[in-house]
């Protein structure tokens, strides 16, 4: 009786140990808290942000709309992102397949010769002398063939949820890859819009430069006439001519910038270098007031933040699966087919063979690989948490910077506009005074140089306003729908 009790206890103890450890390991992994965000953007009231507008509505320049549409169809980065989504989709199929039984067809043949002084060798030799065997059942000697034709199956029963967590991680990463594609779309739209407005600004700069070239050519002709009349000297002619040459060289610098930006736009649009069709001027006005909405809208709309959050969830599931991998796994193996040691008897009814075996297997001594996988999953999960928090902080920083830039460039633009008007009047005054002998050519040069520089600065400020508007639209998660 005591021996039976000890035997039963010896069988129950491992089962009790597995149950206790299983209850502990199957508890959900404690996930660290995510960053807490403010309820509103600084200086912004609760309202619907500009990111809710579709990009075709947000940008009302038809040439820009057509350019963005072309880029969305042909951009190679976007095409590669679609293929990454397909790869992530196959990972779901792989994870799902791991939860189902695997069945394989098996056609095999082989054989072996047992040693004469082994149990198998002696047993086979002795068996052939049995009177119960007919000719078909006698063992070939000395080489014993083995033929099999049938099906083999193996199946890991997901008793702890390890495979389920792996499938959940694969599905979450698939969703994250879709968010990655959306992030490329928002970035692409913003990059095309930025380049387009830079081209419009460069076109405006070329007009300003050409206007100043005409003005400076007139000044050079005037001082040459005055030199012939003895009212100016060669130094004045040289100074004004040098200024004219400098302005002409500036024109070619701007034209080179146009070529570089056009080529970049064509690359984004997936086409070879060609002129970019665009409006003659910036036809879209920057709104006087811009609403950023509330942070909750940005967190839901920004694809990169959503992608980081999904990656965090995927790493959490993988961490849970790595923890459950320490528990025993229940595996069932089976086969069904024909098995014989004579090929001519393989398909006879007596050769039908089948087997089924189930058992729990668990590493007891060398668990370092599983422990390492668990620690790696924990580190990856923590890294994903930090990446998510960083993406949230980055989003708030970009929105705040864009809002302030819109506000400040609006003020700078108004002051620059007034400055340009004053300098344009100064140029006209300097020319009049020079003609009447009350101003020197140096004052004319200074006035012309000043108005050229400030007109270019005003154009740059207007461009920065549009770029800030585009960046705010992107930072709020607009454009991917």
Automatic annotation (TrEMBL):
<comment type="similarity">
    <text>Belongs to the outer membrane factor (OMF) (TC 1.B.17) family.</text>
</comment>
<keyword id="KW-0812">Transmembrane</keyword>
<keyword id="KW-0564">Palmitate</keyword>
<dbReference type="Pfam" id="PF02321">
    <property type="entry name" value="OEP"/>
</dbReference>
<dbReference type="GO" id="GO:0015562">
    <property type="term" value="F:efflux transmembrane transporter activity"/>
</dbReference>
<keyword id="KW-1134">Transmembrane beta strand</keyword>
<dbReference type="GO" id="GO:0005886">
    <property type="term" value="C:plasma membrane"/>
</dbReference>
<keyword id="KW-0449">Lipoprotein</keyword>
<dbReference type="InterPro" id="IPR003423">
    <property type="entry name" value="OMP_efflux"/>
</dbReference>
<protein>
    <submittedName>
        <fullName>RND efflux system, outer membrane lipoprotein, NodT family</fullName>
    </submittedName>
</protein>
<dbReference type="InterPro" id="IPR010131">
    <property type="entry name" value="MdtP/NodT-like"/>
</dbReference>
<keyword id="KW-0472">Membrane</keyword>
